[in-house]
Specification:
The protein has five helices and two strands, in the order ααααββα. With about 120 residues, the chain is mainly alpha-helical. It has a two-stranded antiparallel ribbon with strand order 1-2. Helix 1 packs across helix 3 and helix 1 runs antiparallel to helix 4. The termini are far apart. The model has no long low-confidence stretch (mean pLDDT about 80).
Length: about 120
Amino acid sequence: MSSRGSYRRHSGEFKHQLCADIRGGKIGRREALRTHSLSANLLQLWLSQYDRGDLNEEVAAASVVAEYEAKIAALERKVGQLTMEIDLLKKTPRLRLVSNSESSSIVTGPRTAPSGEDAK
């Protein structure tokens, strides 16, 4: 039995750039195979996908996913911030009542300061 090497994954950007370089004449197929240790069948598959435009869609889908992940991270940060604010607001009225020696009512509010006639 022959031992196989580990599978490698290549990004859509890498595939697209390599195929664009080959189709543009910047690099030859043999040089690409040697440089990146690729199989000829895999490179042919990528070139076929590139010619059909499938690699462009893959790159576009990857960028959309990256945008969504960034948006999700921002929303998670916002939820965390709002949760902390809610917790703080829940604790604040209790702290104010405990530290304030005056009695107050929800309906009437704190007692008013005595006026000149009431003070006598």
